[in-house]
Here is the input.
Amino acid sequence: MLSVEELAYHNPEEDEQNVRYQLRKLKNRGIVEDRKVPTGQRRGDLPNTFYAVTENGVDLLKSMNLYKEIAVWRDVYDRTERTERIETIERMDRPTDDEH
Here is the structure.
């Protein structure tokens, strides 16, 4: 589950506006869903919306034989250098299923 800021950071060729646009398209197709941090738990200028792949999204990845590639992408993601802000965001608690 990632925020727009994290996704844009790890995809430097895309700006946050385009990431939001693409997420909106994926959400409309039921591939991702947004999860919001409850109002009382929001912290300053940190993100309050995160995006998670839905079961339909997982099924789509599997049908396209891309699901196994997640481990490779996770390894690349884990080795990417991060700014202090991105590290702060990554340490945030993420909303649970019942908080969206």
